[in-house]
Amino acid sequence: MWERRAFLKAAGAAFAATLLPRQAAALEAADLVFATATQESPGRFGARVLSERGELISAVDLPVRGHDVTWSAAAGRAVVFARRPGTFAVVFDPAGRAAPVTIASAENRHFFGHGAFSADGRLLYATENDFEHGQGVIGVYDVAGGYRRIGEFPTYGVGPHEMILLPDGATFAVANGGIETHPDYGRAELNLDTMDPSLAFIDARDGGLIGLLRLGAGLNRLSIRHMAADAAGRIWFGCQYRGPSSDRPQLIGYATRQGDIRLIDLPPDWLEGLRNYVGGLAISADLGTIAASSPVGGTILRLDTASGRPIGQTTLSSTCGVAPDGAGFVASNGLGAFVGLGGSAAPARQFDFQFDEHLRVLAGASLATLG
Amino acid sequence: MRLLLVAMLALLASPALGQGAIPFQDMTRGAIEDYARPKFAALAEAAAGLKERVAALCASPSGTAIQSAQDAFRALVVAYSGVEFMRMGPLNVDERAERLLFWPDTKGIALKQVQAALAQKDATAADPARLAGKSVAMQGLAAVEYLLFGTGYEELETSAGAYRCQFAGAASTLVAGLAQSLADEWAAAGAGSAADSMLNPQATSPDFRTELEVANRLAAVLTFGTDTIRDQRLSPVLSFTTGVPKPRLALFWRSGMTARALAANFEGLRDFFRAAKFEAALGAHYAWIADGAEFEFSHALEAAGKVPDSIEATVSDPQGLAALKQMYVSTGSLDTLLGENLAGALGLSAGFSALDGD
Predict the structure, then answer these.
(1) Cα torsion at B329, B333, B336, B338 (round to 10°)?
(2) What whole-number distance in Å separates Cα of residue B252 and Cα of residue B67?
(3) What is the pLDDT of residues B15-28, one digit of tens each?
(4) Phi, psi of A136 (to 5 degrees)
(5) Dihedral sign for Cα atoms in the order B251, B253, B259, B263
(6) Residue of B109, B212, B354 with shortest CB distance to A279
(7) What's the whole-model pTM score?
């Protein structure tokens, strides 16, 4: 950590002052802290850290749209990744007391917008595109070494999107969306006719493949994108369908390390509201409920993880960000709304900025662990 | 300076939900009546023209007949490029968009499959009914272009090219049939029609449940268009990752229609912007967004006019290359105006939500 310490020592006074008293008080009083990428005003982008009451704790500016935020209590740092095909990630202190650090993507790689820290907070991992070979990789960054890129693992698939560290602290689940892109083609999808999505279990220590699971035949246009792990060891995932819009395939399922992968059968009424698109997934604090959001359908669906049955549906146009709070979930949208649902006591609030697609709880974030 | 002004105004302007000066339904009606219906009718007419000219070429091959079929293809490219971004309603059903144009095709699938069929004189590719069941890459504009302009097209001048001509005839027949279906479906007005689902959204509709959903999709046509022009048409040719332009990654380079297709793309988007009454919806307060979009459209069209027909010559010509880059810059400005600014002003989320795979 010497680099960061030396840097903080040199610049300490200035950064310590960034956390204004009002924000320090908000952080101190906060039970839960959320982070999200934002559009502050048309064409101005950033990331914000908010209390569950919506009070601003800290913010960073970004030159273009950000995507997901990942956080490590052990490292005391959050990272916001640029939206794909992103060429940077910004590491920041959620308490706003240290200067942000920008990580540039490696040559012939770009970020996909998601990543995860190791359990001990010493390494940062990011899903990336080896775009000349059309293969997904996980970039590995040394936190103490100034986020130097020290290596990469394959994701054993094309177009990886979200990666999560499983509760064992030693295994990654990676959603290989199966869609090939190349920065010379921006965000255009280049292989819809030959898509091959998969969910990979990867050993976090050496990048070895533990298992690669695919959905059945005829489902190769179902791009697996986002995940959340439940108490029973199931990795729930949400998909986006790239086939004809008149089709209505199932979109939510789970996989296990034992090699099981299946889609659950949502009744047509519930499935319809998702409009073939799940944009985010979250699991409740008690690990018993999954929430799946659809910005296309303007819907958030809640499912019981034990039975796989739907238990509630909330309409919120342009929603995507969804995260657990103590009792239920909070959700955000592209029009500045922040609401509680599914038992949450969070009051609905309207902000003058727009929430981007993901909302994250910074678990264990407090004045004691930050800064 | 203008962009700076836009940015400053954007900071001052507060987004107001549904502040549009006219009802959303007027926009939808305009998009249907003044854009989708006439444009898809023109597409059907151009596609029928191609089918007819290719049939004439096959019936009596000659240099003049080739020219005539090629001209019809060029006219179809213009009609198609003016309407291809209208991915709501009929063009959004099944794999129709891919059947019309299989693109981007980074692995050259269309080329390989068409060449293989030519080499084997595959009879199933020369029969419209059976071609319809084959790869979509062999059925649309990319396939027809190769057959009419690609290596060996000269054989169409005599009976030696009979198979090639029949293949082109089968593909043109499928394109014409699909284009006619699109035109007919847009022209329909009764219950269950595309127009009805947009004008009368219903809570139980699989298409649109609310007027806001329709408005979001109308706005998304604009950003889908500018993104597609930039990401699928300009960016691969400019190839910023290598710094070496790649003219053969251009759409329609064989027919020399790259620049004219781009011009028709921008023109089509501008026509859509006007037909759907976005300027009126934005009102006086947000007139700068409409003014900015009109400015960028004409800027891009001016640049497209400076690009020669031969895209291979263009990339080695500093002026041509500069014009391609200018169009690229315009797509960025249009994306900000028609995505972020317009959505913010109208209380839409089209420019700022996960509509495209994140």
Answers:
(1) -120
(2) 16
(3) 334 445 799 999 99
(4) -80, 145
(5) negative
(6) B354
(7) 0.90
